[in-house]
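Z., the sequence and structure:
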Amino acid sequence: MAEELTGYVYDIQKFSVHDGPGIRTTVFLKGCPLRCLWCHSPESQRFESDLAYMEMKCIGLEDCGLCAKACELGAITPGERKTSLSENKEIVVPVIDRQKCITCLKCAEACPSGAMYDPKKPMTVTEVLTAVAKDKKYYDKSGGGVTISGGEPMSQFPFTFALAKACHEEGISVALDTTGFAPTERFLEILPYVDLFLYDLKHLDSKSHQNFTGVPNELILENARTLVKAGGRFQVRFPMIPKLNATPENIRATAAFCVEIKEGIDVVQLLPYHKFGATKYDRLGIKYKLSNVEPPSDEFMQDALKLFQDMGLNAMIH
């Protein structure tokens, strides 16, 4: 049965106020076909399991060491002696050799503190619905609801569709946070159960889009046009990354495209680049490629906002 479909979730964030209107619960699903250089959730990218290490939870190899004992490949060895982030004492932190690690997750299973863990959590539609429905009174009072996010939630389409439909049947408003990179027919199929699309526009030039995200943009733009014609409502999200897509040419092109689909847009959100996700790369043993990129200035963001507003768009810096 559809309600027993299993999806792969990496987080459920309650009382979220940044993923659509009102008070919301955001369900984050694993897996994404894009590889955006600025991605702030690297744990969302792979459909497979990941081994993450959160140092602030670690007890240390001397007092514990169960992770190293569980690793049959010798991929976990003693590292630096550091001051514990959870206790006032020094600990020896483990070092994971990512070349040896095969993500068997035996270390995570042995870890008593949850310092080593797999972000991937299998959950049924029923389990997710039960979790999100607990806060329905807050959604109703605030005009909020559930946001299905990712990764790219359309990459787990059967699960995403079933969850959106189940939420609607419970009277819970649904927002879908999407890159737009999925078959058009799937977007049209889920449209009756989505009240709002949080729709990313990352670059209007397809070649640049591919260079920065790994995929071209023609399907993304056409899906936006198609959904607007079919009655879809949009919060357009424009992540602005200096040196990559926050150029005068691309800002103007993005604003012009928003004018083209203006009838379906509730608001355009300009999202200034930040480095808040950099620590997540460390947890996964991945190099963060934009460490030398700085956030745009307030003046730059205000100039971009004025351009969007001067073109007749309801825009805001988010």
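The chain is about 30% helix and 25% strand. Residues 170 and 222 are 31 Å apart (CA to CA).

Let me know what you think.
H.
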